[in-house]
Structure to design on (206 residues):
């Protein structure tokens, strides 16, 4: 404004912000019942260590940990104000510790870069790429809605329920626990094996 900009630009800007925020909140409202209370482990750094945290908490998502690697002093102070608990902040976490945390079911999803995705996959926990190499844009109001949509898709993907189930060969009943309904089938198989082992001489003369 001091350099000669149109005085009305502030009013138009505020009106645009209000309009875009209303649209974003309306879209996010559909995801709140599905994501409220879900726990996120954010293994990234820099400005994302607090900006993403603040955005996710707005719709009721719980942050169980956020990396402050490459974060400035100002970034860390913002995180403290948002989370109100320094125990949720960590500089670095070894892969073994990340895996242990996810294996203990302390998070419903991990947001990180591609280098740590296999830790989450090994722990059978949903993972979402939040790094700059990601395929989805998360900028602006539309980007925030897209990020929440991707988190919802990842957490509620039915594949996670399937991979967490024990493999079929571990669900077979022990021989001593053979259900009664299969006794006749067992007898039939044994009779067939006995028959298969006979020769023509066993039947005598016709």
């Amino acid at each position: 404004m001091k350099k000669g900009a149109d005085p009305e630009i502030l009013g138009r800007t505020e009106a645009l912000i209000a309009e875009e925020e209303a649209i974003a909140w309306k879209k996010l409202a559909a995801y709140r019942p599905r994501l409220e209370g879900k726990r996120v482990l954010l293994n990234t750094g820099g400005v994302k260590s607090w900006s993403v945290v603040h955005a996710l908490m707005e719709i009721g998502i719980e942050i169980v940990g956020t990396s402050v690697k490459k974060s400035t002093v100002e970034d860390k102070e913002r995180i403290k104000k948002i989370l109100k608990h320094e125990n949720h902040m960590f500089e670095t976490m070894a892969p073994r510790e990340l895996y242990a945390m996810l294996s203990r079911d302390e998070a419903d999803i991990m947001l990180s870069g591609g280098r740590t995705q296999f830790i989450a996959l090994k722990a059978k926990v949903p993972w979402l790429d939040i790094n700059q190499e990601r395929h989805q844009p998360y900028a602006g109001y539309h980007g925030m809605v897209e990020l929440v949509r991707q988190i919802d898709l990842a957490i509620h993907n039915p594949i996670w329920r399937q991979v967490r189930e024990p493999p079929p060969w571990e669900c077979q009943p022990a021989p001593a626990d053979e259900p009664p309904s299969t006794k006749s089938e067992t007898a039939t198989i044994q009779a067939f094996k006995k028959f298969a082992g006979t020769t023509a001489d066993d039947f005598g003369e016709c």
